[in-house]
Amino acid sequence: MGSGGAVGRHTTTAERTQRLKAQAFGLGFDLVGITTLGEPATRTAFDTWLDAGLHGDMAYLAGDGAALRRDSRRPHAGATHAIVLATQYGGREPSGPVARYARGDDYHELLRERTRALHHWLEAELCRPVNARPYVDSGPVLERDLAQRAGLGWFGKNTMLINPKAGSFFFLSSLLLELGADVALDVDDPFEADRCGSCTRCLDACPTQAFTGPRVLDATQCISYLTIELRGAIPESLREKIGGLLYGCDICQDVCPWNVSFTTSLREEAFRPREMFLDAGSREGTRALAREILMMDAAAYAAAFKGSAIKRAKLWMLKRNACVVLGNVGTHQDLTVLEVMLRHEHEVVREHASWAVARITRLAQQ
Ligand code: SF4
Ligand code: SF4
User: Fold this and answer.
1) Mean of pLDDT values over 233-251
2) Domain boundary residue among 157, 177, 197?
3) Radius of gyration of the chain, Cα coordinates, nearest whole angstrom
4) Against a cut of 0.90, is the pTM above it?
């Protein structure tokens, strides 16, 4: 335990650190850890992954973005430490066509505000400005690395950060900040253990075999990437494997024993599913949701997904995904709306609708 300078009412480093963590919990964060900045432990693995092109179309991860990600001191000038924060978004709710994290309000702004609130609290506590910047899954920061370094968990074979008491259904955010000689915080030990052991459930359960090995994800094969990030046609060889998944995929987290045992129910009001997703867990519900998306115009899309993370996918991408879903779980009753999509202005939607019509028709004849 060290001692800080005579700044603020509580002057020892341990007291200050405890108060900071208590404040973080009070703000609604579920886990908090503190670490120094530097080169991430997975830097070599990250470079190898990029060199192999396993990031697909996510160009923002390569180039200048990669240079910043190779050292967590780079994204924010002067930063020396990170306060790493995790916010759970449930996990006990049934799986469905939309990944759990995307069923409620967009987490970015909410968590950025909370992370900013922690920053302001620290400034008030120290009675001086603190050079800091919040990051919520948006800047060039390898947040899972920071979280492992801050003791919040280990990298599962499914590449997610897993906490031994909370599983992996949580958002990560971080405050990169400059701590000077006059003020310190106790740094947490990194989480060094690998608690996956001989388990391979996540690798075995992936419908597209997107893992080339433990902790190596070929994003170009991953349903999350295909339905959210990919700005083009979904490879035909992967469409059937997508099944009824419309936006994202939770499968390699659902099967993880750490989630089976330790995931909690959803507590955060903002992350409660929007009404249109409430009945979407069944096959009928999935079909109804896919049809609803196919019938949306721009105004309906804007209204339905105002403040939702789903808007990361443009409407034509959601329609592309909905065609794939109906091609997999639809019936002849879905042909009418799919046939309307054969005249859609976007070529990719037209082609996916054509694929879906052909598949439903073929399956009906068998
Ligand atoms: S998110 Fe789904 S598709 Fe992607 S690796 Fe996990 S199980 Fe496979
Ligand atoms: S399913 Fe098993 S191997 Fe995969 S992350 Fe969880 S514990 Fe690790």
Assistant:
1) 98
2) 177
3) 22
4) yes
